[in-house]
């Protein structure tokens, strides 16, 4: 199965976006004559694997390398670097060029920045005295389709940069990506944003429309509504452990660029290969069917499918009808998919069947319901004393702190001290950064979590994970706050929850854009049909990252009877609690 997702069923022509990205890259290679060596930033390798088969890049006179500290050894006369605009990368390239010069090797060097060049990067080349030896260009890749309803802007550190560094370059990048979408599909008439970064993106979109106008007279826009949400508005949801099949795969095996990497033995392979890459996207029909289900239900579905094939096999052994045999052979075509997911599910069960897994989920639910403060505190204290992974401890601690608006001084100081004793005083900066970002802090005001859970109906004790009628099935009883906000935005507008919105971080705004005849009554009325009778298309953009659980919740909403919306999800990257906290831990080292 290909890692490049099939986009034919997308509610928007995402194939056109991918085709353009492929063409732009191939054009760069075509414009440089002679043998060439394409050196790819390792952080871009995975992204490019979602766009183009590497064999197409190797056609003709191109050899491929990954950027490393070691100088590039090649017979090619042209060396092309395809890189993210990062200062450390520029220094590496400068050292490659200087190494070549010192050895008297003559080559032509090209640097293509993704998505655009920066003054700071050019300055490094000047300081290293190699700027006259390099031709600079840009590869304007602002987004990549991860699946037929998910676009990634591939901004790995957007949340950390916004929360800690005051670096707002990702905000410009998101606005530019949406503006590029508008260039293809029309100006989005209704915009609703919540959070500091999201409202800036909305304002920048208007500025870009003024500076580089999209023609609004080419018929009705294909995207009716844009909803922008800061990850900071809802950091509770990613701290919760995801329980959908896709979410659980990400939590336990890390989905990267639409694939997981597992030991070959997990997939039942006998060969010597130690690791296997398993693609996960909607090209796999079974995966498309089960990925958004609660994992308990997935196990039942897989059991039913394997039992059904066994029974049919028993029946087919005695049949004399060719048509029955033909039908059975057709069903056998799905066997590799069933086998793949039975193997993966069995591997996941080795984690989810442990009592410690269920104990953790129980304490999470207790925290979300603001019940039994002392037992939650003691559970985290015990994790610290057992020296469980610091990311695992912090994930529960951040959830505890966020829902309680911080911890009372006595409890805060005690846990802080215990963390430093158990994990080392080198984590002092980490704890300071978490406090600065409001993720683990002293309690100064009363918590508003209870008001939010009641006002937005976030806790549902009657959840039926097998036959869900609400998005709370995603976390077996907790409805993601972020998706409740989306529900209100499309159903009755922000106005109905104005007071609740004020309890969440950052400003909010509503914008109506484009020409009057393209604007829907967004102030409160439904807009689930556009003039030609198609389902209305809503682009939901998460600035700072989205979880697979939230993606599943939006797909569930779209599938509900009477819901006339299709969703396209845009995100700076796909995240979970671990990846958010790991980025903070690494930058605090």
Automatic annotation (TrEMBL):
Gene3D superfamilies: 1.25.40.850, 3.40.50.1910, 3.40.50.2060
Tree of life domain: Eukaryota
InterPro entries for this protein: Sec-1-like_dom1 (IPR043154), Sec1-like (IPR001619), Sec1-like_dom2 (IPR027482), Sec1-like_sf (IPR036045), VPS33_dom3b (IPR043155)
Pfam families, per database record: Sec1
A biological-process GO annotation: vesicle-mediated transport
Assigned protein family: Belongs to the STXBP/unc-18/SEC1 family.
Protein name in UniProt: Vacuolar protein-sorting-associated protein
Species of the source: Rhynchospora pubera
């Amino acid at each position: 199965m290909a890692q490049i997702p099939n986009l034919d069923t997308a509610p928007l022509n995402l194939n056109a976006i991918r085709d353009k990205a492929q063409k732009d890259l191939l054009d760069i290679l075509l414009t440089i004559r002679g043998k060439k060596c394409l050196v790819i930033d390792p952080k871009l390798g995975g992204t490019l694997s979602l766009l183009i088969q590497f064999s197409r890049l190797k056609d003709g006179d191109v050899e491929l390398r990954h950027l490393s500290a070691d100088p590039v050894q090649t017979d090619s006369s042209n060396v092309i670097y395809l890189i993210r605009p990062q200062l450390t990368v520029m220094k590496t390239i400068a050292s490659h060029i200087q190494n070549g010069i010192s050895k008297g090797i003559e080559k032509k060097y090209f640097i293509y920045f993704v998505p655009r060049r920066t003054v700071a990067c050019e300055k490094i080349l000047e300081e290293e005295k190699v700027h006259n030896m390099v031709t600079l260009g840009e590869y304007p890749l602002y987004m990549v389709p991860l699946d037929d309803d998910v676009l990634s802007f591939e901004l790995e550190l957007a949340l950390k940069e916004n929360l800690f560094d005051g670096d707002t370059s990702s905000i410009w990048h998101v606005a530019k990506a949406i503006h590029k979408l508008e260039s293809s599909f029309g100006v989005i008439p209704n915009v609703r944003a919540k959070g500091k970064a999201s409202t800036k993106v909305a304002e920048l979109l208007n500025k870009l429309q003024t500076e580089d106008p999209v023609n609004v007279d080419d018929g009705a826009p294909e995207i009716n509504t844009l909803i922008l949400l800061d990850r900071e508005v809802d950091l509770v949801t990613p701290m919760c452990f995801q329980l959908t099949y896709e979410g659980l795969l990400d939590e336990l095996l890390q989905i990267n660029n639409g694939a997981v990497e597992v030991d070959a033995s997990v997939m039942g392979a006998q060969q010597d290969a130690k690791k296997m890459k398993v693609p996960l996207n909607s090209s796999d029909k079974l995966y498309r069917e089960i990925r958004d289900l609660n994992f308990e239900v997935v196990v039942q579905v897989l059991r039913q499918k394997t039992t059904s094939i066994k029974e049919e096999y028993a029946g087919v052994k005695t049949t004399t009808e060719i048509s029955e045999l033909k039908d059975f052979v057709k069903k056998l075509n799905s066997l590799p998919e069933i086998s793949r997911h039975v193997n993966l599910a069995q591997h996941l069960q080795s984690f989810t069947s442990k009592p410690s897994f269920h104990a953790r989920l129980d304490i999470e639910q207790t925290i979300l319901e603001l019940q039994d403060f002392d037992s939650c505190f003691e559970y985290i204290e015990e994790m610290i004393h057992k020296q469980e992974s610091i990311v695992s401890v912090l994930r529960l601690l951040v959830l505890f702190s966020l829902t309680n608006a911080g911890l009372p001084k006595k409890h805060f100081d005690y846990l802080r001290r215990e963390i430093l004793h158990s994990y080392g005083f080198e984590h002092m900066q980490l704890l300071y950064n978490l406090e600065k970002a409001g993720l683990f802090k002293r309690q100064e005001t009363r918590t508003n979590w209870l008001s939010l859970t009641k006002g937005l109906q976030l806790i549902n004790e009657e959840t039926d994970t097998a036959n869900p009628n609400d998005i709370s099935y995603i976390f077996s009883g907790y409805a993601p706050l972020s998706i409740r906000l989306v529900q209100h935005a499309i159903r009755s507008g922000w106005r109905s929850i104005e007071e609740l919105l004020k309890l969440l971080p950052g400003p909010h705004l509503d914008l109506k854009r484009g020409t009057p005849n393209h604007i829907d009554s967004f102030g409160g009325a439904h807009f689930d049909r556009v003039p030609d009778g198609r389902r209305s298309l809503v682009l939901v953009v998460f600035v700072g990252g989205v979880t697979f659980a939230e993606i599943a919740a939006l797909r569930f909403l779209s599938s509900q009877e009477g819901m006339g919306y299709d969703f396209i999800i845009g995100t700076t990257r796909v995240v979970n609690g671990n990846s958010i906290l790991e980025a903070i831990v690494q930058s605090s080292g």
